[in-house]
Automatic annotation (TrEMBL):
It comes from Thiohalocapsa halophila. Signal peptide: none annotated. Keywords: Repeat, WD repeat. PROSITE patterns: WD_REPEATS_1, WD_REPEATS_2, WD_REPEATS_REGION. This is WD40 repeat domain-containing protein. InterPro entries: Quinoprotein_ADH-like_sf, WD40/YVTN_repeat-like_dom_sf, WD40_repeat_CS, WD40_rpt.
Length: 372
């Protein structure tokens, strides 16, 4: 594992996304890294040196979220390559691959902090305050409004038909084409982060008061204790975090969720029934601020408030650590799991190349990385 390139943006990095090579005829042969900043600009970087290719001002105020439309190859996908962005100016916008404005979808009076596509790229959801907007392409499918709760996190189910939203003291499930949501979980405190297990049969919610809550759908044959009927559900509560659970990511192929609420990572194996089994990982000395599984699940990356970056095997063995110069705000793998990018609050971006088979290597300690 070695550093590919590092650049400095004018202000804090707020979001990073990889655009695969050959997305369309404009993007060229190289994959591109899209970076959003607190200055409202979006920039694209490519090549061995991460040269800046495009830059445009997307929002007045910071960019709060950046989502590249998924374009799965199977079934055949005729959707154009589109980038969605949300900002502190209350706008949700669609952009083409050259940074041209395709459409302004929404103009809210408050920040739009939450933005997500379905896995097939057909539907887009955004949340601002108590409003949830839905679009199919540029067509509005309406707005859901919750008079009692502000949306603090949201995530599409893998089937693209259900949208989970986390609000103060609860988790709710909305059905596309429906109106009133179904409440799945009740818990004390406010949610911070939310994620679906890849099979769509479990949801994990990290809360402000240091709990991990898991909703788990019971199998038809098994039923669920406490529901009194088959096909019910159960709720697990994991305690002991010293701080808010602000990071979580499900393993792409196992029923395991990586979490952080303080300086330790905790891997939870969630069985079909019964309690979860924790595995703590300890290398960080300050609060973990970002974590992400590689697309194949072979590696896990984490980073903290002091800028320390750690790469772990899927079993939790430490493989490499290095130090950046500022708090890491986000981390994102490319589609081939051959590189990972980290964005920092001082505006720096670092891309790390991952060698094939790195998941079976030995731990190494790298020196502090210096900006170029």
């Amino acid at each position: 594992m070695q550093e590919r390139w590092r650049h400095q943006l004018p202000e804090a990095v707020t979001a990073l996304r990889w655009r695969p090579a050959g997305t369309d005829r404009h993007s060229g042969a190289d994959e591109e890294l899209l970076a959003a900043g607190a200055d409202g600009w979006i920039r694209t970087h490519a090549g061995a040196d991460g040269a800046e290719r495009l830059a445009w001002q997307a929002h007045d105020g910071g960019v709060t979220n950046l989502c590249l439309r998924p374009r799965p190859k199977q079934p055949a996908n005729d959707l154009p390559a589109v980038l969605a962005s949300a900002g502190e100016d209350g706008r949700v916008a669609l952009w083409d691959t050259r940074g041209g404005l395709v459409a302004t979808l929404a103009e809210e009076s408050s920040w739009v902090e939450h933005l997500t596509w379905t896995g097939d790229g057909r539907l887009l959801a955004a949340a601002a305050g108590r409003s949830i907007h839905l679009w199919r392409g540029e067509e509005s499918l309406g707005v859901w409004y919750d008079a009692n709760r502000s949306v603090l996190a949201l995530a599409w189910a893998p089937d693209g038909k259900r949208l989970a939203t986390a609000a103060n003291k609860g988790l709710h499930l909305w059905q596309v084409g429906g109106d009133a949501p179904v409440q799945l979980l009740q818990f004390p405190g406010a949610p911070v982060v939310l994620g679906w297990r890849p099979d769509g049969k479990a949801l994990a919610v990290g809360t402000q008061d240091g709990f991990l809550q898991v909703w788990r759908q019971a199998s038809r044959s098994q039923g669920s204790k406490g529901t009194g009927r088959k096909g019910g559900s159960s709720q697990l509560t994991m305690r002991g975090y010293p701080a808010k659970v602000s990071c979580l990511d499900w393993h792409p192929t196992r029923s395991r969720v990586a979490t952080a609420g303080g300086q330790d990572l905790v891997l939870w194996d969630i069985p079909a029934a019964g309690e979860g089994k924790p595995t703590p990982l300890r290398l960080h000395h300050t609060a973990v601020t970002a974590l992400a599984y590689a697309p194949d699940g072979a590696l896990l990356a984490s980073a903290d408030r002091d800028g320390r970056v750690c790469i772990w095997s899927d079993t939790g063995a430490p493989l490499q650590s290095l130090s950046l110069d500022a708090e890491v705000a986000c981390a994102v793998w490319n589609a081939e799991a051959s590189a990972i990018a980290f964005g920092c609050t001082d505006g720096s971006i670092m891309v790390l190349d991952i060698e094939p088979g790195a998941g079976s290597g030995q731990h190494s300690q790298s020196k502090r990385s210096q900006p170029s």
